[in-house]
Design goal:
Elements lengths: L42 H11 L5 H6 L15 E9 L1 H4 L2 E2 L5 H4 L5 E6 L11 E3 L10 E2 L2 H11 L4 E8 L15 H20 L4 E10 L8 H5 L1 H15 L7 E4 L10 H14 L3 E4 L6 E2 L2 E5 L1 H18 L19 E7 L2 E4 L1 E3 L4 E3 L6 E3 L3 E3 L5 E7 L4 E11 L8 E7 L2 E9 L4 E10 L4 E8 L10 E8 L1
Parallel strand pairs: 1-6, 1-7, 3-6, 7-8, 8-9
Antiparallel strand pairs: 2-5, 3-4, 10-11, 12-13, 12-18, 14-15, 15-16, 16-17, 17-24, 18-23, 19-22, 19-24, 20-21, 20-23
Helix pairs in contact: 5-10, 8-9
């Protein structure tokens, strides 16, 4: 990964830079120079074109975009302890195997401490503050998502002091034990969070505490029976509302893992859909995909060691996204739907479905040949389906949206089309982009939490998707 690359670049170029509030600026950098066509077009060329067209007015803003994970501007005099809450059932408890970790992965994580109420699991490391290391799983020789989550956050913010509070028990459901207000585990979570925040404050009287997010990995036990799966959306909504109210944190970001769609949970699809639906109406809330993560060979209900590490990193990236004040594609490109608010879609008329991620090739692919979106900014449509990138607003605000689109391959074909949608309604386009040509557009939008902006690339008028590599650059600022 090159970290000296300008951020204002894209291949079907949607440089979408969103600055929503004077909060934390968390950004990712990707390799972004691509020879996408026979004329040697690169994302740098497109960025330079846009900069010249705008008289360089945006250069300062682009230069200010960090090329790594940047700590926030706290705007306070007191040092801060950032706290992440973790809760759920067995895949939050964790069955990763300590002995399968590398030497580096086994090392304690600097500047990160953890308090773990392991409930019935009798982990000897429970109910005391300790430095984060392997061993905070179902037993002291197992670990959960907290290990990679804490390490990833430390890598992102090495100067910060971080604290994790984890309350989890295997085999538990939201229809009874996690039920908002009355469930025993719900009440345990609230009481432990309050008690441990008070303990942290007493131990560090000169620090302020800031709760970054609640990470939730639960739902398998509610996916066994139809009656419980059907009620999951309402119960999770009530859980989110109640925990925010009871902790006195009305805007507490929520991170929810989507349960794996496997045979042991026949109604997993309903629970997964319910979790997504809640995330759209209880912002700020992110969802994390798990359907590509393998389980233990002899235990098909629990993520194996490698998957537990990946899940923890995904949770950490989602926590980081909730602190994010600007967004850019392809810099924010990832292998997880909805990470940092982005989703990768296959549009056929008014029907929109998620793309699937090809790990071997490193891109999102649709159902038609050549249809893809990759991390270098390339959009390529199918013959009749569009390749579409969508961003969901995490908070309200007025934003300036700048879009530059260039058909990057001049070897043939009938060009491409570019369209921008807002919540499914056409906002701009469809604009025809002949081979080698480009179009730019600027608009100011007032968005609400959950507003979806979609950037869509289609084939030309003859539905010929040959030579249809396209570059997008989108910038969004308040």
């Amino acid at each position: 990964m090159r970290l000296n690359q300008p951020r204002s670049f894209l291949l079907l170029s949607a440089v979408l830079t969103l600055v929503a509030c004077p909060g934390d600026a968390i950004r990712f950098a990707n390799d972004a120079t691509v020879d996408a066509s026979s004329d040697g077009l690169t994302l740098d060329d497109l960025a330079a074109d846009q900069s010249r067209a705008e008289g360089g007015a945006d250069q300062l803003a682009h230069d200010q975009l960090a090329h790594d994970l940047a700590p926030p501007d706290l705007a306070v005099s007191k040092p801060t302890i950032d706290v992440v809450l973790l809760a759920g059932q067995s895949n939050m408890v964790g069955l990763g195997i300590n002995n399968e970790l590398s030497v580096t992965q086994k090392a304690p994580v600097p500047n990160v401490s953890i308090y773990y109420n392991s409930s019935v699991h009798q982990n000897p490391k429970g109910k005391t503050w300790l430095q984060l290391a392997p061993g905070f799983g179902v037993s002291s020789n197992r670990f959960g998502p907290e290990l990679a989550l804490g390490r990833r956050l430390h890598e992102a913010w090495p100067q910060r002091t971080l604290a994790l509070i984890k309350v989890a028990e295997g085999g538990t459901a939201i229809h009874d034990r996690w039920l908002a207000k009355t469930g025993d585990l719900y009440k345990l979570l609230v009481s432990e969070v309050k008690a441990q925040l008070a303990a942290l404050q007493a131990k560090h009287p000169n620090h302020q505490l800031r709760v970054l997010a609640l990470v939730w990995m639960q739902g398998e036990s509610d996916a066994i029976k139809s009656v419980h799966a059907s009620a999951y959306e309402q119960r999770l909504t009530s859980f989110v509302d109640a925990v925010r109210m009871d902790l006195g944190l009305p805007k507490l970001p929520m991170i929810a893992g989507l349960i794996a769609p496997q045979g042991g949970w026949p109604y997993a699809k309903i629970v997964r859909s319910a979790t997504r639906n809640v995330s759209k109406v209880r912002l700020p809330m992110e969802v994390v995909e798990t359907n590509d993560l393998p389980m233990h060979a002899a235990d098909v209900a629990h993520y194996d060691t490698a998957s537990t590490l990946v899940l923890g990193r995904r949770f950490a990236d989602a926590v980081i996204a909730t602190r994010q004040m600007s967004w850019s594609y392809p810099a924010d490109f990832g292998d997880n739907q909805y990470n940092q608010g982005w989703s990768y879609l296959d549009r056929a008329g008014s029907s929109v479905t998620p793309m699937s991620y090809d790990r071997a090739k490193g891109y999102w692919k649709g159902t038609q040949m050549f249809q893809q979106i990759n991390g270098n900014g390339v959009f390529h449509p199918g013959s009749s389906h569009k390749a579409e990138l969508a961003w969901t607003a995490p908070r309200a605000g007025v934003y300036m949206v700048k879009v530059t689109v260039k058909a990057g391959d001049n070897r043939g074909g009938d060009g491409t089309t570019a369209t921008i949608y807002r919540d499914g309604a056409t906002l701009w386009g469809p604009i025809s982009i002949p081979n080698g040509a480009k179009q730019s557009h600027t608009m100011q939008l007032n968005v609400q939490p959950g507003t979806k902006l979609s950037f869509s690339c289609g084939a030309g008028p003859a539905d010929d998707n040959s030579f249809d590599t396209t570059l997008w650059m989108v910038s969004i600022t308040p």
